[in-house]
């Protein structure tokens, strides 16, 4: 680690703490050359492998964009979307792998989105799972109804299933 003040090639760690809900480590460092202190933040990289084989860093922002499109016109707040994106990232990081398939990201989105808004879930699933017929929609709706009946959760007047 180079000192940002004198560019010396070494530094000493004085203090380490977790940051960002445990996904990063904040380190206080001191340069042995000039004596100045500075902070670094370290986080584990998480890459998404796309269908094409290309790899790119995981982006919570991209999750938000996709889910926001599915929730367009639905009674879902930005806070709800941010919480969903955080849940997705936590689920993916909990797998403990440095690389994850894009397909797995989509699967991690489907569960929390179904809990948030069933209509948005169907919209997202129709694109993600490439629905190409009415039968695909009917099958997804039948599955949603069966799960709702099994858990005893009925949506309120807004069409949103109660959160558990």
Describe this structure in words.
- This protein has 2 domains: 12-42, no CATH class; 47-151, no CATH class.
- With 164 residues, it is an alpha+beta fold.
- Helix 2 packs across helix 3.
- The chain has a 3-stranded antiparallel sheet with strand order 1-2-3, with no helix packed on it. Strands 5-4-6 form a 3-stranded mixed sheet.
- The chain is built from 5 helices and 6 strands; from the N terminus they run E-E-E-E-E-H-H-E-H-H-H.
- A hairpin with a 6-residue loop joins strand 2 and strand 3.
- Keywords: ATP-binding, DNA-binding, Metal-binding, Nucleotide-binding, Repressor, Transcription, Transcription regulation, Zinc, Zinc-finger.
Task: Label this structure with key terms.
zinc, 2 domains, 164 residues, NrdR-like_N, 3-stranded mixed sheet, 44% helix, elongated, ATP binding, 5 helices, zinc-finger, alpha+beta, 3-stranded antiparallel sheet
What's the overall average pLDDT, rounded?
A: 87
Q: Assign the structural class, choosing from mainly alpha, mainly beta, alpha/beta, alpha+beta, or little secondary structure.
A: alpha+beta
Fraction of residues in helices?
40-55%
Rg over alpha carbons: 22 Å
Compute the number of structural domains.
2
Distance between the termini: 46 Å
Total helical segments: 5
* Global outline: elongated
As a percent range, the share of strand residues is: 15-25%
Tally the beta strands.
6
Can you summarize the main beta sheet? 3 strands, antiparallel
Provide the succession of SSEs. Answer: EEEEEHHEHHH
Neighbour order of strands in the largest sheet: 1-2-3
Uncertain stretches: 156-164
């Amino acid at each position: 680690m180079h000192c940002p003040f004198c560019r010396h090639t070494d530094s000493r760690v004085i203090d380490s703490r977790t940051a960002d809900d445990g996904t990063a480590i904040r380190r206080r460092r001191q340069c042995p050359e000039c004596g100045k202190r500075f902070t670094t933040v370290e986080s584990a990289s998480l890459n998404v492998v796309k269908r094409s084989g290309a790899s790119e860093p995981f982006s919570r922002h991209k999750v938000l964009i996709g889910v926001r499109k599915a929730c367009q016109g639905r009674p879902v707040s930005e806070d709800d979307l941010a919480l969903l994106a955080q849940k997705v990232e936590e689920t993916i990081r909990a797998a403990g792998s440095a690389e994850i398939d894009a397909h797995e990201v989509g699967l991690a989105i489907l569960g929390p989105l179904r809990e948030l808004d069933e209509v948005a879930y169907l919209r997202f699933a129709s694109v993600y799972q490439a629905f190409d017929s009415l039968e695909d929609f009917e099958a997804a709706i039948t599955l949603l109804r069966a799960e709702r009946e099994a858990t005893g959760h009925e949506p309120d007047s807004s069409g949103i299933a109660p959160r558990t």
